[in-house]
Design a protein that fits this description.
By secondary structure, this protein is an alpha/beta fold. The chain is 42% helix and 19% strand. β20 and β21 form a beta hairpin.
Length: 625
């Protein structure tokens, strides 16, 4: 698919366009890290983070707390729910008394009174003992939910960093004087997964802690409870991300019936913080978490309590500036792409972006425990933008440059030779190498005298017309046009592709040049202008042909003694009555042309005389211009 840039974009220098593409990639990464309100926390980000949490969750036993579960086995053994309040009171008393638990938090809201004796016992335990009662706040705001009697909380005229609730389900009035109250309400993400908790909830001028925070305030010792699960990983709207550092297998889950009949191992409960709830599908809300699609809500509070305990003990991972790390990573990749897009192939750039994406995934894996705010998809989206925009743009530019270079090559090399080069698919066809070549050097005799009296435009037209007479035959004979010398040219045969009859091809071009000059001079004669004489020197031999350019400019040429001899032969033609002077090397290789021996001369720079030849005329007209 062809990449079509905007007109204004195409008008900019290529370096500026590449820089703009890279800048756009960086801005995209920045947008994902600091998105406008309501546009962040994409499913891709959360999915990536969930995969990391599942991999990193430790199965090491959580020895600081225990979970007591009103499970299906307990219901089958002791009767269906609701249980008598006396049984619930006995469960709490057994935990605090016989088992020596440090504190107990219930994840079971009791909005209606039941048996008076049991409610009285629970009320006394909640008022004077290390017992935290729950109440569930509603955050949807769809209905004015008011169930039970709201209790606890501390006065707060403004929400601050607390999450504002719209309603509640509380315990009945007989339990309203409890000393410790914790919120058990959840706020799922848009995909229904519980990843965050409102550590503080604000309702009707009061702030209420979450259940784990209330349990720590009640029974966690003298150290103040941390305000967030990992010492400050806050999302920005009052919600705190749960790190889910332990797998569910790490928690000791004890059936409630084993506590009631005193068959539970004492070591699992002594001096522990205990959460009491239910995993029974008939009682508990089942929620989705990053660790599993269906989990008891009680275990979510257990994960929050683990995070709080880690933060208080200094075991929580140190916070990292994850968003800035992500932005710097995207900026480094984009900056590198400014260099590579112009110098590497499309496949190389794709491989580079793929490697950068894999490297980022590895870095993000390390960062997840340290930062709750960074968007893992940011650098990936930046790389995707570079892949979708930068790589096609660079490919289009490279194709355009290749076409321009190919068009330029066709000006110097015959189309048939270019096609042959493409068919050979050589890795580096212009690499300098030794080869057998035949060099043809042609020049206009008396150029200065012809153009000195002419206006500039006419002098330029004469030069172009003369060079056309030379260039056409050279390319038609599959020659490589080395260079123009102002009023002449240098061409050779046998490179960049070796050919067996390179000497005859050069002689073909020379004969065609002579024929063209005869027609050229006939036209000049009809205009009353003096004829133009061409001088041609031809010699064959070993030479080094290839790209001999510098870092800033390349040139394809041939260098060697045979090239120098061809130049001397062209100069020698000035004093000879022959337009084409041919050296002995070409004469030895010639097969299709008849040559005439015209003597010998000592060329400049040579110690011994050089035998000279010229083309034998095929008709009397070919003997003169």
């Amino acid at each position: 698919m062809k990449f079509t840039a905007l007109p204004r974009l195409r008008a900019l220098p290529l370096t500026a366009v590449r820089a703009l593409i890279s800048l756009a990639a960086v801005l995209l990464a920045a947008w994902t890290q600091w998105p406008p309100a309501g546009l962040g926390w994409t499913s891709a980000d959360e999915w990536l983070r969930d995969q990391v949490l599942r991999q990193q969750a430790s199965a090491q036993p959580e020895l600081r707390l225990a979970v007591v579960d009103v499970d299906e086995g307990s219901l089958a053994a002791l009767g269906p729910w609701p249980w008598p309040r006396e049984r619930i009171a006995s469960l709490v008393e057994q935990l605090l008394g016989a088992y020596g638990a440090r504190g107990v938090a219930l994840d079971l809201v009791l909005p209606e009174p039941a048996d008076a004796a049991g409610d009285t016992r629970l009320a006394m335990l909640a008022r004077h003992g290390p017992l935290v009662l729950p109440q569930a706040f509603d955050f949807n705001g769809n209905l004015p939910l008011r169930v039970g009697q709201l209790a606890g909380g501390t006065p707060s005229p403004r929400p601050g960093d607390a999450v504002v609730a719209s309603g509640y389900v509380a315990n009945h009035a007989g339990l309203a004087r409890a000393a410790h109250i914790g919120n058990i309400g959840f706020i799922p993400d848009r995909d229904g997964v519980i990843r965050h908790l409102p550590m503080q909830t604000w309702f009707d001028g009061r702030r209420f802690p979450t259940l784990s925070l209330a349990l720590l305030d009640c029974c966690g010792g003298s150290a103040p409870a941390a305000s967030g699960p990992t010492g400050g990983l806050q999302r920005g709207d009052g919600l705190r991300r749960l790190p889910y550092s332990r797998s569910w297998e790490a928690y000791a889950v004890i059936p409630a019936r084993m506590v009631l009949d005193l068959s539970a191992p004492p070591g699992l409960l002594r001096d522990k913080l205990v959460l009491v709830g239910s995993s029974s599908l008939g009682l508990a809300d089942r929620v989705a978490t990053p660790l599993s699609p269906s989990t008891s809500g009680l275990l979510v509070h257990a994960a929050a309590l683990t995070a709080q305990l880690d933060a208080r003990a200094g075991l929580a991972p140190a916070p990292w500036p994850g968003r800035w790390i992500a932005l710097l990573f995207a900026a480094a990749t984009a900056a590198l792409s400014v260099h590579t897009l112009a110098r590497q192939s499309a496949l190389a750039n794709i491989a580079l972006l793929a490697a950068a994406s894999l490297l980022w995934l590895g870095l993000a894996y390390l960062m997840v425990p340290h930062d709750a705010l960074f968007a893992g998809s940011g650098p990936l989206l930046s790389n995707l933008f570079l892949l979708a925009v930068g790589v096609p743009f660079a490919w289009q530019v490279a194709q355009g440059q290749s076409r321009r270079l190919l068009d330029t090559l066709r000006q110097y090399v015959a189309d048939a030779v270019v096609d042959e080069l493409l068919r050979h698919n050589l890795a580096d066809p212009l690499k300098p190498s030794h080869c057998e070549v035949t060099t043809l050097i042609a020049d206009m005799q008396g150029y200065t005298g012809h153009v000195s009296a002419l206006p500039l435009e006419q002098a330029a037209e004469l030069t172009r017309s003369f060079l056309d007479c030379l260039t056409g035959p050279v390319l038609a004979a599959r020659g490589t046009l080395d260079k123009f010398t102002g009023d002449g040219l240098v061409a050779f045969w046998g490179a960049p592709l070796p050919v067996a009859d390179h000497a005859d091809q050069a002689l073909d071009a020379a004969a065609a040049i002579l024929a063209g000059m005869r027609e050229f001079n006939r036209k000049r004669a009809r205009q009353g202008l003096a004829p133009i004489r061409v001088r041609i020197g031809i010699e064959s031999g070993r030479a080094m042909a290839g790209d001999f350019g510098s870092a800033s400019r390349s040139i394809y040429t041939a260098v060697g003694d045979s090239v120098n001899v061809a130049s001397r032969l062209e100069t020698a033609a000035r004093d000879l009555p022959y337009d084409v002077i041919i050296g002995p090397g070409t004469a030895a290789l010639c097969r299709r042309h008849q040559l005439r021996h015209i003597g010998a001369t000592t060329l400049r720079g040579k110690e011994h005389p050089t035998t000279l030849y010229t083309l034998a005329p095929r008709s009397p007209q070919e003997g003169a211009l």
